[in-house]
Amino acid sequence: MMTKALKGTMAAAAGVALGLSGVAAAQAQDEEAGILAAGNVVIEDGGIQLYGEANGVGKQPHASMIALDLGDEDYRSVYCIQLEVDLEEQYLHEERPWEDVPVEDLPMVLGVLLVGYDGTNAGELLEEAGLASDDYGDVTQDQLAYAATQSAIWSLTDGWVIDPNDPTENDVADEIVPALQAYILEKAEPVDEPDLEPYFDVDDSQAKTEGTTVGPFTASTNVEAINFSQPEGATIVDENGEELTSLSDGTVFYVKFDEAKTSSVTLVTDTFTWTTPAGRTFVPVDAEGVDVEGQRLILAEEYTEEYNAEIEFEITVEEVPSESPKPQLPVTGSSLTTVAVTGGAVLLAGVVAMVLMRRRAARADWGSDT
């Protein structure tokens, strides 16, 4: 006598189709996947001139307020992370991982960004530091907050020391910028490099079949939640058999099939939310995408957007003799009814390389490693 059991090949059969809208969709259409985010440099404001020295040499840099343009004058604040290298405004700036950026102490730089000015919080930052005022004279809250954060970053990346006697070109800034820099550096703690891409992965190490129910699976993801509609031919449930409508990091779930047969399960999401993190680094590139010598930049502000995706799982049904012990796989000793994921994490990144900038990725594929 033979009975059917759901057998051990859970695979992402197709990949993750990600939805784009607006300008991002137009930019991604007909272009290859895999390029990281990129944007054009914009100097939004001349900022405040600083006085001091770097490595024993006197310097008078402007803490110019810089942004990367994502189109339609929608800007994201960035900072320079190389004091003695020129800013190459004429070049596109493309994202690179930290390991490809020759800058010291990036974990502490990111710590400074998370405490300091992100392009939106000047008033709150000055208030927290006890430096708020009703009158800033000829300078603005934003200029002061940006200058203090930039000066703090240069102190880490370039050995910059602001002049304690004549720190800036402005009397109000002379009082506030050094004090705010000191506050930011005191509060900052090192932070690891942020994820460049959103992902969704499944731990199936404990999964097995009970009738037509397969699991448990544990979701691993760096997005807030993936909301979905129930697939055809199966129901996604929790450990108590209750239907689930979203998966977040650490969620334990089961796939309950209508019947035991070869089948695919497709989770069609309503939305998922991905926050582009601060701390991503950018370098200038020429028309062929080759790095050129020039100021490296670091993203100062987070950016949140919602996306759509389809995630497909495939589970195979095999016939197993019911009157004999279940066969064992030779290496692991796992029963043939054990379910294993084929492929690595689902990278939800194609579209989300960075909405904040021009990109070419419209899809992200499952890996092929087991």
UniProtKB/TrEMBL annotation:
Tree of life domain: Bacteria
Membrane-spanning intervals of the chain: 336-356
Thioester domain residues: 78-189
Pfam families listed in its UniProt record: TED
Keywords: Membrane, Signal, Transmembrane, Transmembrane helix
Annotated coiled-coil segments of the chain: none
Database matches in NCBIfam families: LPXTG_anchor
Protein name as it appears in the record: Thioester domain-containing protein
Organism name: Glycomyces niveus
